[in-house]
Amino acid sequence: MNSAQRHEYLTALGLDAWVRRDQPAAALSSIRASTETSRELSTVTPLLAPVSPNTAREAGVDWPELRARVAACTRCALSATRTQTVFGVGNQQAEWLIVGEAPGAEEDRQGEPFVGRAGQLLNSMLRAIGLPREQVFIANVLKCRPPGNRDPAANESAECLPYLEQQIALLKPKIMLAVGRIAAQNLLRTDVTLGRLRQQVHRFGHSQVPLVVTYHPAYLLRTPGDKRKAWEDLKFAREVCANV
Length: 244
Ligand code: SF4
Fold this sequence. Notes:
The chain is of the alpha/beta class. Helix content is 42%, strand content 10%. Strand 5 (202-204) and strand 6 form a beta hairpin.
């Protein structure tokens, strides 16, 4: 990616204020250098066993069958209120798996995760580290929209997580990026705050896939002052992926 493109994506993240007008390339290099130094990648022990007790339910299922099972699923009450299931989208050979919480209203309408303004910001965040949306796989903990965008109930997450676990088994990603507190807490089975989960390497599931936590783009749209922290998280995740 050239400097102009990176500048464009950083601008979308609201980080252009950090670029000196007379030396944009030098300033961008210094942003990169601030996080690409020899900082040790911290690793933490899994907080709790992050595997659903129902994992075996979908084990061995291929992509088309898994998609069909999700589309027909009535395992929790969300099946009664959804417009359609939101299976996930992206490259089935992707190294990066992005996991959010659940579909919102627009995702429920379109059948695709992370669309609308939050989706556009996520795309910009990914492009800023050299990852077009087409190169990653994006999914949610829940495949159906909770009414009123409420938080997922514990039984809904427990019923739906085996689908994500099988997606992970098929994808074999090098890294997972959990976006937002709800996704992170559900994946890691913890109530630790997002602020304390950031900037650490967690491990998910039997495969022990490295998992990094960052803010949800919808939160960043409401709280642009935290975009710089999200940028640090993305660079951290990129370092982790490069060292897998
Ligand atoms: S949220 Fe998951 S478990 Fe519940 S009905 Fe939808 S696909 Fe099935």
